Amino acid sequence: GKFIEDSSISQRALERAMKEYPYLSYQYIEAVNDLDLNFGGKNSSGNDIDFNKIKADAREKYLPKTYTFDDGKFVVKAGDKVTEEKIKRLYWASKEVKAQFMRVVQNDKALEEGNPDDILTVVIYNSPEEYKLNRIINGFSTDNGGIYIENIGTFFTYERTPEESIYTLEELFRHEFTHYLQGRYVVPGMWGQGEFYQEGVLTWYEEGTAEFFAGSTRTDGIK
């Protein structure tokens, strides 16, 4: 016989997943996301699903801790398993990298005041698994060890074990923090825009200097 696809079958299957899996689990959020993308955010009864509230609840669940430094200009939002000691270490690492960066580029004034990066926000999930949720709840690629988004002044990443990544959280943070400094103090405009980024001819500069300054220390220069 002729097969006729009934989209409501898929819709009801996604609703069942929402009932079967715990609220805010990866499977639950994935099901809600599929309903939002494919069914206009409605269930099979035609009622709206409040996806924005679910995403807000997920941020609170997976990033419950907030730390503020430098009078609110450096903010960390972290999972409950990311230690305060680790967060403070990242803050001091940012100071080491920034000091060496300023020494080399000879500029400590932001090229453009009033940009989102006036406040740097660092978002750290508990694990690679929880980080995958960032694709849905914040809308950014998670096929990476971490990513800095200049137009919102935010760096997204996750805590990891040596088995999960060849880079430690601090090593990756130092690299991405240098990208933040490049965008704020050296390259005008937003990332990917303007002459600097045309045809990708200066990618070597971006990535090379990020690797270089990742080796910044407080007392021994750059290693």
CATH topology of the largest domain: Glutaredoxin
Strand order of the largest sheet: 1-2-3-5-4
Which stretches of 5+ consecutive residues score pLDDT under 50?
none
What is the CATH superfamily classification of the largest domain?
Answer: Collagenase ColT, N-terminal domain
Tell me the number of strands. Answer: 5
Strand fraction equals: 5-15%
Described by the principal axes of the CA atoms, the overall outline is elongated
Corresponding CATH architecture of the largest domain: 3-Layer(aba) Sandwich
Largest sheet: 5 strands, mixed
User: What's the helix-strand series?
Assistant: HHHEEHEHHEEHH
Whole-number radius of gyration? 21 Å
The average pLDDT is 86
Distance between the termini: 71 Å
With helices defined by DSSP (H or I, 4 residues minimum), what is the helix count? 8
Q: What class, by secondary structure content?
A: alpha/beta
CATH class wording of the largest domain: Alpha Beta
Helix content: 40-55%
